[in-house]
Amino acid sequence: MKAIIYARVSSTTDRQNTARQIADLTKYAEYKGMEVVKTFEEKISGAKKNNERPIFVEALDYCKTNKVDMLLVSELSRLGRNAFEVLETVKMLVDEGVNLYMQKEQFTLLDEEGKPSMFAPIMIATLSTCAQLERENIKFRLNSGRQLYIDKGGKLGRKEGSTKSKEEKAEEYKQVIRELKRGTSIRKTAKLCDVSVSTVQRIKAEFGI
Description:
By secondary structure, this protein is an alpha/beta fold. The protein has helices spanning 19-31, 54-65, 83-96, 120-151, 166-172, 174-181, 186-193, 197-206; strands spanning 2-9, 35-43, 70-73, 99-102, 107-108. It is 50% helix and 13% strand. A 5-stranded mixed beta sheet has the order 2-1-3-4-5, with helices on both faces. α3 (83-96) packs antiparallel against α4, α6 runs antiparallel to α7 (186-193) and α7 crosses α8. The longest helix has 32 residues, at 120-151.
């Protein structure tokens, strides 16, 4: 059985890499007796449309032209930025007879007969919609918090040499702090709150979270 891996991270810097995704998915393929014939790695924002992700497009084209049996990804968000794009990708895979494995969700698209479960479309649509709503709600709360902070006289920037008080930082980055206290990873918190990974790391250290 032939499989390919598609791994993506949002950062184009060295702070994030695809090594962990590839290692975990390779291990899964070996356990299932699959041959990983090609690995696709991409560093691009998750906010980009699927047709703006050249490596992702290449991976899907490879599935079509090389009779690949399974596409391995780390999580559902790798398939699209919203429910519509995710379902569009899934439909293409089903039409081409390509199975799909999502590590985080522990989900396989097709059964042993190569047919999708009757619940698969519902599950995928629900998961992708929830993920999309979560991102939008967090961004809305973050922006609202920033605006409230500004309305109260706070300033997001600071003069050179000045230092913000801990109270000011707590107000400005309250959504970041909330996500960290929930146990959300640093990278996911940065993505959800639209801040850099280094900012999240700094806030985590300063507030002892």
